[in-house]
Amino acid sequence: MVFEKKVIINGEPEDEEEEEEEEQEMVDPLEEVRQKCEEIEHCVHNRERLEQCETRVGSRSSTEEDCTEELFDFLHARDHCVAHKLFHSVK
To answer: Which Gene3D superfamilies did the record assign (predicted)?
Structure first.
């Protein structure tokens, strides 16, 4: 039997460059799918309504209106799309 003796200096592995490359390659599939879903027509429409509401509310100095409904509509549309696509991209 032959044993190799490796010395680790300062607790760092020898192949530090390979580990850094592996870390850079990791991408959250959820974020990618969310970005793609935000580009479909239904999500674009809901995002536009949300942005219009935010502009309207932001232009007033005193208002009780908020954009909760528009935000929930947008998130619901995006998450509905994501639910159908996410598990196809997960290994």
So the answer is: Ubiquinol-cytochrome C reductase hinge domain
pTM of the model: 0.66
CA distance readout (Å), 70 to 15, 45, 73:
50, 10, 5
Q: Is the pLDDT of residue 73 over 60?
A: yes
Question: Which amino acid is residue 70, in one-letter code?
Answer: E
What are the residues whose beta carbons fall under 8 Å from the beta carbon of 30, sequence distance 6 or more? 82, 86
Q: Which residue has the higher pLDDT, 44 or 17?
A: 44
